[in-house]
C-alpha cells in the first residue's frame, strides 16, 4: 500500500499546531519595468538599482507589492528521500553501425506510489539522453561512412559542415506575451514549460489590468520559448511562439490577494523538445534542504519588442533559501488586506543584504535548482521549486521575495497536465 504523503488535513494541522516551525522555503518574484535600470554584473547576480526608488518609503505600500487566502491546497509531506534519476540515465541498446537509425522505445518509468510528475521527469531526462546519443552517433557516422562507403546506412542530411547552436541554460523558460496596439508583443510575465502542452506560471499573470493602455487585450496570447533573447532578431536562432489555448487559474485564487498564486496555460500545439526548449521537473517534496541552501531566479522583466531601454536577454541571479519563520518575521510589518503572513504553500528566497532579486515583470517565472546530469551537450534541466509571486520593493535588504511552493500544488497540477 502507498503511504499517503499528500493528505491536506493531516499534514496541515500537524504543522499549524506545532508552534515554532523551522522550514526551508523559497520565493519567486516579479518585475514590471518602472524606469530603474537592470544590470547583470555576473552570471549569478542580478542587480536592480535606482537609489532614488530603492530608498523611497512609498515602495513599502500596496502598489509596490508584486504578486496576489485559502490554505486548503495539499502540502506534500517529505519522506526525506532524494529523487533517484539514475534509471533514466541507463544505457540504451545501440546498433553497432552508428549510421543506423536510433529510435529506442521509451521505458515504462511508472511504479507503484510514484507520482505522475516524477514519471514524466524521468521521461524528459531519458529523452535528453537519447538526443545526446543521436548527436554522438551522428558524429561517429561521418567517420564510419568514410571507411565503409558501401554501408547500408548513410549519414543523415545536414550532418556534414553543420555548426552547433548555442544551448539554452534555462530551456524551460517561457515569456508570456500580450498583444500591443501596434501589433508587437509586450512581455509582462515569465513561465516554466512543464510538458509539451503546458506552462506553469502565476495566477496574477492570467490577466493584466483593464486600465493598461499599452496592450490591446488584458488577456495574454502567446508564450515565447526557445531563446534567451525574447526579441525576434535577424541574427541568431528564432524563438518559438506557442499560442495560448486555455488559461487555468487555481480555483482558490482571488485577486488581488497573494495566496494560491498559481496557474497553468495550455498551448494550442505540442512543443517539440530540443536542447533549447525542454521542460523543467516539478520538485515533489515539501522540504527542499536536500537541494542545498541556494536557488536561482530567472526573468526578463517587461520587454516591448519595439522598446530600446531594457535588454531582452534573460537574466539570472543566485539567492538564498530563507527559513520560513525568519521570512515571516521580516515581512509581517508589511501586513495588509491582501497578504498577512506566509502559508505552507509559500516559500521565500533572497539576499539579506539586498541587491539580488526579481522585480516587477518577472512574475510567474521559476525559482529553480540545477539538476546534476552527466549529459552536458543537450541543454540543462532544473528542479522547479517555486513560482515567482510577489515581493516588497525590489532588492531591498531583509525583504526576501515570496514564491508559490510548487510541491504544495501537485494534486491540482498533475490531473490537468497529464490526466491522472
TrEMBL record:
Domain of life: Eukaryota
UniProt domain Peptidase S1: residue ranges: 159-418
Gene Ontology molecular-function annotations: serine-type endopeptidase activity
Family matches, as PROSITE patterns: TRYPSIN_DOM, TRYPSIN_HIS, TRYPSIN_SER
InterPro entries: Peptidase_S1_PA, Peptidase_S1_PA_chymotrypsin, Peptidase_S1A, Trypsin_dom, TRYPSIN_HIS, TRYPSIN_SER
Biological process per Gene Ontology, one example term: proteolysis
Record keywords: Disulfide bond, Hydrolase, Protease, Serine protease
Coiled coil: none
Family named by the database record: Belongs to the peptidase S1 family. CLIP subfamily.
Protein's name according to its UniProt entry: Peptidase S1 domain-containing protein
Amino acid at each position: 500500500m502507498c503511504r499517503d504523503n499528500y493528505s491536506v488535513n493531516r499534514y496541515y494541522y500537524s504543522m499549524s499546531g506545532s508552534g515554532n516551525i523551522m522550514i526551508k522555503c523559497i520565493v519567486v518574484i516579479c518585475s514590471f519595468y518602472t524606469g530603474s535600470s537592470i544590470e547583470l554584473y555576473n552570471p549569478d547576480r542580478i542587480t536592480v538599482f535606482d537609489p532614488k526608488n530603492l530608498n523611497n518609503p512609498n515602495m513599502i505600500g500596496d502598489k509596490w507589492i508584486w504578486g496576489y487566502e485559502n490554505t486548503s491546497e495539499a502540502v506534500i509531506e517529505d519522506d526525506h528521500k532524494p529523487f533517484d534519476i539514475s534509471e533514466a540515465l541507463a544505457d540504451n541498446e545501440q546498433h553497432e553501425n552508428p549510421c543506423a537509425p536510433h529510435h529506442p522505445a521509451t521505458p515504462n518509468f511508472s511504479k507503484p506510489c510514484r507520482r505522475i510528475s516524477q514519471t514524466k521527469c524521468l521521461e524528459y531526462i531519458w529523452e535528453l539522453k537519447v538526443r545526446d546519443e543521436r548527436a554522438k552517433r551522428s558524429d561517429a557516422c561521418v567517420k564510419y561512412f568514410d571507411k565503409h562507403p558501401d554501408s547500408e546506412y548513410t549519414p543523415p542530411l545536414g550532418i556534414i559542415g553543420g555548426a552547433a547552436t548555442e544551448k539554452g541554460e534555462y530551456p524551460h523558460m517561457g515569456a508570456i506575451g500580450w498583444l500591443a496596439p501596434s501589433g508587437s508583443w509586450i512581455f509582462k510575465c515569465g513561465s516554466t514549460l512543464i510538458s509539451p502542452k503546458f506552462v506553469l506560471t502565476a495566477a496574477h499573470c492570467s490577466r493584466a489590468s483593464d486600465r493598461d493602455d499599452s496592450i490591446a487585450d488584458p488577456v495574454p496570447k502567446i508564450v515565447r520559448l526557445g531563446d534567451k533573447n525574447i526579441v525576434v532578431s535577424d541574427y541568431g536562432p528564432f524563438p518559438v511562439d506557442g499560442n495560448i489555448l486555455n488559461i487555468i487559474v487555481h480555483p482558490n485564487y482571488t485577486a488581488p490577494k497573494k495566496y494560491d498564486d498559481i496557474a497553468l496555460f495550455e498551448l494550442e500545439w505540442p512543443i517539440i523538445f530540443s536542447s533549447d526548449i525542454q521542460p523543467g521537473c516539478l520538485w515533489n517534496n515539501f522540504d527542499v534542504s536536500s537541494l542545498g541552501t541556494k536557488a536561482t531566479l530567472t526573468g526578463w522583466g517587461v520587454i516591448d519588442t519595439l522598446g530600446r531601454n531594457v535588454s531582452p536577454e534573460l537574466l539570472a541571479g543566485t539567492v538564498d533559501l530563507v527559513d520560513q519563520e525568519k521570512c515571516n518575521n521580516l515581512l509581517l510589518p508589511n501586513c495588509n488586506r491582501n497578504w498577512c503572513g506566509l502559508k505552507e504553500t509559500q516559500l521565500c528566497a533572497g539576499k539579506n543584504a539586498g541587491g539580488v532579486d526579481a522585480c516587477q515583470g518577472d512574475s510567474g517565472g521559476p525559482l529553480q535548482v540545477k539538476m546534476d546530469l552527466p549529459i552536458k551537450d543537450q541543454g540543462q534541466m532544473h528542479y522547479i521549486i517555486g513560482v515567482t509571486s510577489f515581493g516588497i520593493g525590489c532588492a531591498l535588504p531583509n525583504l526576501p521575495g515570496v514564491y508559490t511552493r510548487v510541491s504544495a500544488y501537485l494534486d491540482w497540477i498533475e490531473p490537468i497536465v497529464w490526466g491522472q
